[in-house]
Amino acid sequence: MDVSTAILNRYSVRGFKPDRVDQTIINKIFETARWAPSNCNIQSWHVNVVSGEAKDKLAEALIADVMSGKKEYPDFVPGNSLLTGAHKERQYECAARYYATMGIERSDKRARMELSLKNWAFFDAPHVAFISVPKYMRDGHFMDVGIYLQTLMLLMVEHGLGSVAQGALSLFPDPAKMHLDIPEDHGIIVGLSFGYPEEGAQINKARMDRDPMESHVFFSE
Fold first, then answer.
1. pLDDT for residue 48 is more than 90
2. Domain 3-78+119-203, what fold?
């Protein structure tokens, strides 16, 4: 599979088969992804991959934390919290398409909450990766994590896997820090649930458009 094909075939998978991915394949993906570029080659990312019983226990702890009524307490400012204008409109459109795919009306708060909770159950994926960085790091370093994350997701497409990047997994970080070997001075920036896509799952029918190239690419000579 060439890179262009992987890019065009990647989408956010939220319905997974229960089958675990062979550890040899997982190792190959993360071994290759370490070659992702980063500013001054600092390679800021720290990754914890969770599977099996450990994943299930973590999901239980996360959902309990989310349902406790406490406010979100992320280590870093969430990207969606500062959106305005066209960017905010795209966020709304994305959410509208997602809920519409699942037949959920905007006014149905209960159904929306139940669907939202699937984030912290990792959408029942057999594996999830938590990516953290030292808390002193800022915007430029987050760009490095984005490059690494995209590298992981495209490699997963190459191996027939699906994934979904989840900022939601950074909003309630304490359970992950309690259950996983995350350095004390690190903050969770994103999670990545992954496994084999369940092709017939309704939740996987959600697709998002992209603006035309001419709306954001400009050439000068």
1. yes
2. NADH Oxidase (3.40.109)
